[in-house]
Write a structure and sequence with these properties.
With 240 residues, this protein is of the alpha+beta class. The protein contains eight helices and nine strands. The chain binds iron/sulfur cluster (SF4).
């Protein structure tokens, strides 16, 4: 099994050769990227561009038509749900290589070129190209609970940190969503997520922990829930 982008690339490379493919895009980020944009934009869809020739702002505003009426962009996950989330309004500063020179950059989320190096420099990744857009209607605890349910289900169970960690992250965010959060839950959630990366035999350990780590880092205030009455989680919400 492979993804559509890879199959498209292979077909093209077989037809024209690797050298011709490598001339597309930008230095060190060659070829094309296929972005699968989902969520809160006017024209979600599947868009292909030479790598690094379009920014996040151009993709979301010009290609995808911008936010839904009356809404503002709140966050975007640039490379599939395991990629660390970006918060609109945050800025990224540093130096990057352009030709033979090192130049300063100062980017908002909209300014980031969609290539592997640039997304890596700002602490996330190009990953699968699955661009998930969230506007200001989204509750980030609910969004993370949805992601955590997915990763908990997908863990194969071979490594204890991934098997137990993904399950516990799901349990904690589920009880937060259902109004059963404990005072210590935000810290507990971070503690669980921080103990998974680097302790598993495949990259799924990182993949399942990065969403929780980045949601907490970028939207920590939304996770500081205090215990409050609410509907108790259903048993099926708490098991894999
Ligand atoms: S890290 Fe990979 S191998 Fe280990 S339990 Fe998770 S999915 Fe399975």
């Amino acid at each position: 099994m492979n993804n559509v982008e890879t199959l498209c690339h292979v077909k093209y490379i077989v037809e024209v050769g690797g050298e011709a493919f490598a001339k597309i895009g930008t230095p060190n980020n060659t070829g094309t990227r296929i972005f699968c944009v989902s969520g809160h934009v006017q024209r979600p869809g599947y868009y292909e561009f030479p790598c690094g020739t379009i920014t996040m702002g151009q993709l979301l505003n010009e290609v995808c038509g911008g936010p839904l009426p009356g809404r503002k962009f709140k966050a975007v996950i640039p490379g599939g749900s395991s990629a660390k989330i970006l918060r609109f309004g945050e800025r990224f500063k540093g130096k990057r290589k352009v030709g033979n020179d090192m130049v300063d950059y100062d980017w908002g989320v909209e300014d980031v070129p969609l290539d592997f190096d640039s997304l890596g420099m700002i602490g996330t990744m190009g990953g699968s190209g699955g661009v998930i857009v969230m506007d200001d209607s989204v509750n980030m605890v609910e969004a993370l609970a949805n992601i955590n349910a997915f990763y908990s289900h997908e863990s194969c169970g071979q490594c204890t940190p991934c098997r137990e960690g993904s399950l516990w992250m799901k349990k904690i965010t589920t009880r937060m969503v259902h109004g059963q959060a404990r005072t210590e839950d935000a810290a507990l959630l971070k503690g669980v997520a921080d103990q998974i990366p680097g302790r598993t035999i495949c990259a799924f350990g990182e993949a399942c922990s990065w969403p929780t780590q980045s949601f907490l880092a970028k939207f920590g205030d939304e996770f500081k829930a205090t215990p409050r009455p609410g509907r108790r989680p259903k048993p099926e919400d708490l098991i894999v």
